[in-house]
Amino acid sequence: MAGAIIENMSTRKLCIVGGILLVFQVIAFLVGGLIAPSPTTAVPYMSVKCIDVRKNHHKTKWLMPWGPNHCKKLKDFDEAVSRQIEANDIVFAVHVPLPTKEMSPWFQFMLFIMQLDIAFKMDNDLRENAEITLDVSLAYRDDTSSDWEEIAHAIEIRKLKCTFGSPKTMESEGRHYDCDFLPFMEIGSVAHKYYLINIRLPVNERKGINVGIGEIKDIRLVGIHQNGGFTKVWFAMKTFLTPSILIIMVWYWRRITLMTRAPVLLEKVIFALGISMTFINIPVEWFSIGFDWTWMLLFGDIRQGIFYAMLLSFWIIFCGEHMMDQNERNRLSGYWKQVGPIAVGSFCLFIFDMCERGVQLKNPFYSIWTTEVGTELAMAFIIVAGICLCLYFLFLCFMVFQVFRNISGKQSSLPAMSKARRLHYEGLIFRFKFLMLITLACAAMTVIFFIVSQVTEGHWKWGDITIQVNSAFFTGIYGMWNLYVFALMFLYAPSHKNYGEDQSNGDLGVNSGEELQLTTTITHVDGPTEVYKLARKEAQE
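Structure tokens predicted for WLS protein:
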């Protein structure tokens, strides 16, 4: 009777905890959907064609498209031809942001893509697999009267991928090619108010530089940055969730240290998962408001990679520790086949990120996809990581199948136990199935909301209420995985409640007063688990 009361209380507590977590999950989605604006904003920029007159003793090498010190402009290239202005003397200038606006550190990052307006001309056709060489410079200043300070300068090559939907005849001259967008620039902080981009297209017929690229009419840029309002909501969530996870981590580890035995593998992995979640949560982004930390994007990728690697490792070890067979698994080396693909895949993605965003710390115009070698290298890393991920999920699915098969087989032994013990083990099995269901629900919600955010227009409007779907996806999924880690540490912290005298100790040879735990791997204070001993005894028989 006492065991039944304990199990009923435990199940009731589990339902209460689940209800509370569900409320917080709904709040996380609503914060992003109703309070935060859309995560990012895209701003189109049209470059201004300037005449580079530095050889005529111009005072600065930076050419402004507008303002009191704007450059001498060209309307089009026909004017340049009539005035005998060479292509090397033309600079495409873009000022960020648009007039009367300012950039802000709350924007966090800037990503630019380029679109070329290329017209067809019989005597200047676009060659197949043509490459365009860009001489690009980036500068900043924080007030309209200061001089421009250079951030970066580089000579970059981009492959042109264009199609022409009409026959290449005299009647088609002047029509534009349909060209793919080109990666142009990415910078991991927005520490200054004004930015200036100068783009030159140097021509050298002898070396074949910018020859056979068609007749370029204009250069357009699209700048993408994070919205300041979303950044504030995101920082607020991180600031709130950090102490929440820290508190449950301290409580969880304190419960473990009070035990008379050493921590088992599953307990260590859950604690490591909490550490990786805290690593993501710590709002170091607050410092990016006052410091020009261009490495924040790379740092964020590394933090997420560590968390996902720990999460995937936890799922494997969680299933293995609930296998309930005759094999000893309370050691990490027993999972090298399953954890190995995670390590290899994570390492490949880390190298790929370092080759892309790591180089961009010095050269924001760099892109690994712009050369054949870089593209092949990047694809190799991604393919290897994809293969490792597929192997991992095959291992995981096989282990989940084995766990459920073993649980079904061991349930036949439950009727031979005393009522209290039977209810205890039924509760353990229920909790395993409950966590598996929650895990599948979290993974499914992540995939579903990602797909919805990609196929919708970014917001839903119901009457006077506008729901930002993309923002709800970010805040909701971020909150969901925090709650998942919180629930793990809460449910799987060792309990210090004891049973009373067991009415039937002889059935399993178990001593009275054994400790009640929430995981099948750690129900005994100093030895193996009761379910494990049951499984081993049956296997030997």
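The CA atoms of residues 280 and 300 lie 8 Å apart.
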